[in-house]
Design a protein that fits this description.
This protein is of the alpha/beta class. The protein folds into three domains: 84 residues, Chorismate Mutase Domain, subunit A; 140 residues, Rossmann fold, CATH 3.40.50; 130 residues, 6-phosphogluconate dehydrogenase C-terminal like domain (6-phosphogluconate dehydrogenase C-terminal fold, Orthogonal Bundle), CATH 1.10.3660. The protein contains 15 helices and seven strands. It has a seven-stranded mixed sheet with strand order 2-1-3-4-5-6-7, sandwiched between helices. It holds the Pfam family PDH_C. It is found in: Cytoplasm. This is T-protein. GO terms for molecular function: chorismate mutase activity; NAD+ binding; prephenate dehydrogenase (NAD+) activity; prephenate dehydrogenase (NADP+) activity.
Length: 379
Amino acid sequence: MSDKDPLAELRVQIDSVDQQLIDLFAQRLSLVKQVGEVKSQHGLPIYVPEREASMIAKRRAEALSQGVPEQLIEDVLRRVMRESYSSENDSGFKQVNPDAGPIVVIGGAGQLGSLFARMFKASGYDVRVLEKDDWSNAEAILAGASLVVVSVPIHTTEEVIAKLTTLADDCILADLTSVKAGPLKAMLQAHKGPVVGLHPMFGPDVTSLAKQVVVFSDGRASERYQWLIEQIRIWGAHLYPAPAPAHDHAMSLIQALRHFTSFAYGVHLSNEAPNLDLLMDLSSPIYRLELAMVGRLFAQNPELYADIIMAQPENLAMIRRYHQRFGQLIELLEQHDTQAFVAEFDKVKEWFGDYAQQFLIESRNLLAQAHDQRHHQSR
């Protein structure tokens, strides 16, 4: 038997392979940078769903042929591609409307406003920012603007829009608010030109708009703001058209109810005052992920979430209905009615349909990733 530690020898070989992987990743990112430059020159979007799906399918098949788990390769490639999309941002983007005048972002120093200001600058536009202390100079800042984007807190959005009554008729007026009906109505009243409501369905901390969803609600003269829609599409986003009422109803569930539920759970936890370290140590992957999503909310701006939850009366009505159903289900537990529980369970399962199985698969991947991030301390 060799005097050398056989495990140590194997670890040296593994370290060598890991170094080769790093070299290959560096090579891939270098190629991606070149791809980004070509896409920028030709006005191609950084995210092409068909190309990504085809590439993933081929790599999965190749992995299978070599006895490598398909999901492993897909997980690695998707993480690498996420970094690749971020790298392509550095190459800039084609300017869809080179004849456009200045683009003014009202609230452009804020988190979301500054993100869009950076994206417009990366596309070669002349970008101006108008903040709350700049209104004395607003006429000069807004002069000649081809696009004005309002990115301010929800509760001040309509008030700010009401000030924009002197824009040129060919100027596009848009907003980035998570509520659409009220701001859209205000924009149509204040401005005679093209109007569109935008809602980016992501936070300002994203590193790329690839695969991100931007909802848009038509206001007026859609043919005149199509260059803006196309510009956002080139950034990699998926543009989803939705009438303002339908959008706002969906947001009552997607945002208001979800954020309020996280808020209520966080308040309950803090009042119960459990040992948070113990919860983390004993947590299953799914509970750790749930706790992370609740904790994420409390790491951010409370005024922002209060604004979202209280943005429209429909949100409160939705939350009240949820509270009522919550009470009804508590009564079911008090009665120890297993049959009723199963009946409710099956009814919801039927409503989800095929999505239930799809979500089961997606959640397994998320839970595996959350588990990978876990680090146990030696005891």
